[in-house]
Amino acid sequence: MRQVGGGTAKHYRCPGCDQEIPPGVPHIVAWQQHSGVDDRRHWHKSCWNARDRRSAKLQRSRNAPRH
After folding, report:
1. pTM, 2 dp
2. CA atoms of 25 and 62, how far apart (whole Å)
3. Domain residue limits, the chain
4. What's the chain's average pLDDT?
5. Dist. CA 32–CA 2, nearest whole Å
């Protein structure tokens, strides 16, 4: 796990809340110890901190309404 300052020009999707992380927003990059670069996940800091308190993950389409 590493905190990054958001210096890239890419958009990422947080697996915790399924929302975009726009360019320039500081966030957490996490990956398993023996995983490759393709297995990195970009999280909002608050979503990363709350990951153990979440219920079962809901899968929704990219066009689903966000509340």
Report:
1. 0.66
2. 21
3. 2-53
4. 80
5. 12
